[in-house]
Amino acid sequence: MHLVHYNNKYNPSDANKQPDGLAVLGVLFMISKEDNQNLSAIIDKLSSIQYRNSEVKLDKELKLKSLLPDTFPYFRYTGSLTTPPCSEVVTWTVFVDTVQISTAQ
Ligand SMILES: *[C@@H]1O[C@H](CO)[C@@H](O)[C@H](O)[C@H]1NC(C)=O
């Protein structure tokens, strides 16, 4: 999972052209038997946002912290977007610990 943040020094449309434009939190998932209820606010709405640039309002409150691992050791490095044009504008923070997600989710 990528939580993408734009540097508010820039317009969102320009941030992806600046070397310090984006900060992305990367979280790795581990498959679990149980659903992770913390993800349900998002997962419940995925069928409503199947196309690029579509938007939907969540029905439930979502605390971003509940999407992160419980402990915070991380790797941080400067890198790029993961898709073309792969601009080198991202400060990556990738958490060492994983978050659970069920196969159904
Ligand atoms: C859900 O969020 C709470 C609060 O952040 C956290 O303590 C708990 O470990 C999370 N559950 C899962 C399955 O990640």
Automatic annotation (TrEMBL):
**SUPFAM superfamilies in UniProt:** Carbonic anhydrase
Q: Name one Pfam family in it.
A: Carb_anhydrase
Q: Which reaction does it catalyse?
A: hydrogencarbonate + H(+) = CO2 + H2O
The entry's keywords: Lyase, Metal-binding, Zinc
Task: State whether keyword Phosphoprotein applies.
Answer: no
Looking at the record, the residues that make up the Alpha-carbonic anhydrase domain are: 1-105
User: Does the keyword Transmembrane feature in the UniProt annotation?
Assistant: no
Enzyme nomenclature, EC number: 4.2.1.1
Q: InterPro entries, from UniProt?
A: CA_dom, CA_dom_sf, Carbonic_anhydrase_a-class
Assigned protein family: Belongs to the alpha-carbonic anhydrase family.
Q: Per its record, how is this protein called by name?
A: carbonic anhydrase
Q: Which organism is it from?
A: Limulus polyphemus
Q: Gene of origin? A: LOC106476984
